[in-house]
Input
Amino acid sequence: MRSLGKILLRLSFLSLFLAIFPSIALVAAQTDEAQDSSVLEATSSGEPDQIESATGTDEPQKSEPEVEYFPKSRVNEDLLVIGTGPVSGTFYAVGGAICRAVNRGTDRHNLRCLVEPTSGSHDNLQLLSDKRIDLAIVQSDWQFYAYKGLANFAETGAQEELRHLISLHHHPLYLVVSPSSEAFSLVDLKDHKVNLGPKGSGQRAFAEVALASVGLSSKDLASAGELGPREQLDALCDGEIDAFIVAVPKPSGLIRWATDRCGARLAEFGSGVFSALLSENPYLNQLDIPAGSYRNTPVDIATFAVVSTLVTRSDVPDHVTKEIVAAVVDHFDDFRRQHAVLESLQLTSLPVDGATAPLHDGAEILFKEKGLSILTGLSQ
Output
């Protein structure tokens, strides 16, 4: 009888465990979901010391896992999904900063922002056009090509519904040369060994635009390298190449490593480069790399940059886009502290830098209320 009692007791415990196990599983799943959500909205507020991608943008490396996108079936119109880039990239971190700004006012406007990792600008524009996301961070050159139906969008046609919301951080073009190189400007690269980046990459396309501005092409170089980011650093410091051209957000761990590791220096682009380049490419902005930003940079370096921009579609309601822009503008100093690449943002540049698609009506209303000029590259 005593043994039978023990058996019955054990069976009772087993039945109780099975009864509560689904609840335990549900709690665990909810906890994981909450953790995933917090990870999606987290950003690194520290300086980006990792090596940037081979494109100089937020394009993924080959090792990046395949991205599963937000489902086409949207069940909550108050949920804003923002397409960014790989989880390790700057776009993803900046997207988190935007969502935190929006979510700060959820109790008032009932909007909730969620960060979605993607493969970068081109992917974001397609997802935005397909209405699978509501907002997207894209480089200004991609914004221009999509709205005009150029380059990669020539076959699919112009995305006339594309709208600009705010301008974000810059991706300046750097000409990095070895300490023993005799090249001091773009035109000096003729007959030198220069890494332009992998074929088909954003780095190479931007480098070729820069070379063309001084009448050069890859055929004028002793060699036009196709190396990735780490390989080009090793090649420069080992004397295998004379220079590389790359566009990366500032401050840049890649540029710092090159100047610290083997005494590489930043070369100037030369006089007469910018006027024609900027007039032919309205998505570019001229700016300076301040003296002392990196080792061996005793003077300001005049350069040009593509701009990361937040875009949406014309069918997103005005009151929604107005709240998004207000979330950034009304807490601008706090927004800039969210990531190192945002620290140099200027309030007056938000409506204009790199903007070639029309400003969304809701954003225009907000900028006018704040007294900010809305003259963009499209209307100039």
Summary: The first strand starts at residue 79 and ends at 83. Residues 13-75, 376-380 have pLDDT under 50 and may be disordered. The two ends are 95 Å apart (CA to CA). The longest helix spans residues 2-40.
